C-alpha cells in the first residue's frame, strides 16, 4: 500500500494537506516549519520548489519563492530537505509541486529519480498540460512515484479520462479559477467533477487553491472532496513571522474541522 492509499484509509477520505515553499525563509527555519505541519496534524505535505516564474501561484506563494531564492536555496537543497524530512517522518506522504523549467533543467528522468531517492511520493508539474504529460508520467512511474495532475469543474470529459489513465496518488482539484490564494469564502460546484473522476477511475480528489479556514475545510469535505490542501494561509503566516508553534496551532485548527467525520468513519469501521 502506498503512503497516499494508507493516508486516505486512515483519514476516512477526509485528509488534510499542508503546503509550504521549501527554503522559505531559509533552510533551517523551513525545516522547523516542516515539522510544525506534522505537529499540527497534517496528513500529507505538499512542498514547492522555489522558482522565479511560478505562474500558477498568487502573490503570497510567489513572495515565498523569492525569499527562498534570495536565501540561496536551489533544487539540490530542496532534495536534501526532503530527505531529512523523510527520515524524521517516515509515514507522511510528501508531494512536490514545481514547474517544467525546474524539472527539465535536470532532465525529466533524472529529476524523478532524485525525487524518489529523497523520499518523495509524488510530483505535480503545474504548468504541464495533460496532453504533454506523458513523458513526466513515464519518468515518475519508472522512478516509483506518482504523477499528480490538476482537474477543474470545467475540465472536459476526455481530459478527465486521460488524467485517470496517466496520474495516480491523488487528483489535485482547484477550488477557484486563476492562481493560488486565501479566499474568504469558497464557491464550490465540484460534485459533477468528483463524480466524473470517480467514474473514470481517477485517484481521490483533493481540493486546493483557497483553503484557508476550518470552515473551508469542512465545506470542501462535505462537498465530496477526499482531502484538502491549505497553502497560502500557511505561507502568509510564515511571511508574517509566526513561530513554528503558531503555524502548528493553525494547522491544528484546520485538522479539527476533519475530526467529526473521522470519528464517524472509525465508528463504522469498528
Automatic annotation (TrEMBL):
<comment type="pathway">
    <text>Amino-acid biosynthesis; L-tryptophan biosynthesis; L-tryptophan from chorismate: step 5/5.</text>
</comment>
<comment type="subunit">
    <text>Tetramer of two alpha and two beta chains.</text>
</comment>
<dbReference type="GO" id="GO:0004834">
    <property type="term" value="F:tryptophan synthase activity"/>
</dbReference>
<keyword id="KW-0028">Amino-acid biosynthesis</keyword>
<feature type="active site" description="Proton acceptor">
    <location>
        <position position="46"/>
    </location>
</feature>
<comment type="similarity">
    <text>Belongs to the TrpA family.</text>
</comment>
<feature type="active site" description="Proton acceptor">
    <location>
        <position position="57"/>
    </location>
</feature>
<comment type="function">
    <text>The alpha subunit is responsible for the aldol cleavage of indoleglycerol phosphate to indole and glyceraldehyde 3-phosphate.</text>
</comment>
<dbReference type="InterPro" id="IPR018204">
    <property type="entry name" value="Trp_synthase_alpha_AS"/>
</dbReference>
<dbReference type="InterPro" id="IPR013785">
    <property type="entry name" value="Aldolase_TIM"/>
</dbReference>
<keyword id="KW-0822">Tryptophan biosynthesis</keyword>
<dbReference type="InterPro" id="IPR002028">
    <property type="entry name" value="Trp_synthase_suA"/>
</dbReference>
<protein>
    <recommendedName>
        <fullName>Tryptophan synthase alpha chain</fullName>
        <ecNumber>4.2.1.20</ecNumber>
    </recommendedName>
</protein>
<keyword id="KW-0057">Aromatic amino acid biosynthesis</keyword>
<keyword id="KW-0456">Lyase</keyword>
<dbReference type="Pfam" id="PF00290">
    <property type="entry name" value="Trp_syntA"/>
</dbReference>
<dbReference type="InterPro" id="IPR011060">
    <property type="entry name" value="RibuloseP-bd_barrel"/>
</dbReference>
